[in-house]
Amino acid sequence: MTENAPRAVPASPAPTRGTKRRRTPRLATTSGVLTYVFIALAVLLPVPYMLQLPGPVFNTLGDYQGDPMISVSGAKTYPTAGRIDMLTVAVSGGPGRDIFASQALGALINGEQTVVPTEAYYPLDTTREDVTESNAVEMSSSQDVAIAAAMGQMDKSYSVHLSVDDVVADAPAQGKLRKGDRLMSVNGKKLDSDPQAAQIMSRTVQGTDSVELGIERDGKSKTISLTPAKVDDRKAIGITMKQDFEFPVDVKFNVDGVGGPSAGTMFALAIIDELTPGAMTGGKHVAGTGEITPDGTVGPIGGARQKVAAATEKGATLFLSPADNCAEVMAAADQSKITVARIDTLDDAQTTVEQYAAGNTSDLPKCPADGADNNEKGQ
């Protein structure tokens, strides 16, 4: 008789240390935590960029905080109508104000804001106070230059005096020139009362090895001889200059809290509108931008895309764009909602507004669709 063989019982598997099955949860947890940490760092990490976004809009023909934004006295003025808007760009970030990677990424996605490197605008050692002071100085200067451009456009004479604003330490001018000295001539070329005096002064210094300045100090005339020094491959005598204007009219601006030079063209148009019969805009809503020089040349500005957005949001129907900003303006998301006209000079700007007011839009100088630098006509 044969005994039944014992039934085989499966053996339990020997425990295995360190298998994937036991370690996976811990690795997954650690990996997830690290991912969240990296995301948090990316979101909260300050980055060296600034965001440009649409800023407040001001009607230069209207009031601001209960007072006229621009008031002219000393000459006959005329009623105005419509709007001539100056546009601003709000800036997030920059010296003393951090923005984070998440903000920069969001700005790139929404398309209305522009991300720019801080170093492209400000040296690394610039402080917030430096920015505020610089903006205020630029705004004040742009107002004087706008008046000068308006006077020139209306053939009204004015005088301008070039003076020393500051003397650089250890420069050729130190100990010889003082702040406040009026610069009357340079190497026999008259400077006083010439709107191009600063340019004449700069060109003369660059083109000579010796400078003879005629100055006026405390009511007395003096002659100062200087030898320019080489600074970054350019000749310099070590002064900063400012222009002091004397106008036949008195113009007051009510623009607290706004800085920079880009409102010059709109200021000039508003002054002309107040000093000439008839409403330049014909009651229409015009907006625009552009730095301006005393001879009426309109220069490019920053933040053109944001200014188009601000203009359309406020309901403007005509946008005046400096020629060198055409490409950026035509790339703006809102440019199709507004008539865009290219301007090179204050005369262009005035003529364009008057033509638009009269309903003549077929011959406006326009920015080409591809932003190329040409002077196409028509819509």
From TrEMBL:
The PDZ domain, residue ranges: 134-219
Chain segments carrying region Disordered: 1-26, 356-379
One BP term from GO: protein catabolic process
InterPro entries: Lon_proteolytic (IPR008269), Lon_Prtase (IPR027065), PDZ (IPR001478), PDZ_sf (IPR036034), Ribosomal_Su5_D2-typ_SF (IPR020568), Ribsml_uS5_D2-typ_fold_subgr (IPR014721)
Parts of the chain that traverse the membrane: 27-51
Pfam family, one: Lon_C
Molecular function, one GO term: ATP binding
Protein name, UniProt field: PDZ domain-containing protein
Alphabetized PANTHER family for the sequence: ATP DEPENDENT LON PROTEASE FAMILY MEMBER
UniProt keywords, alphabetically: Membrane, Transmembrane, Transmembrane helix
Transmembrane helix as UniProt keyword: yes
Keyword Protease: no
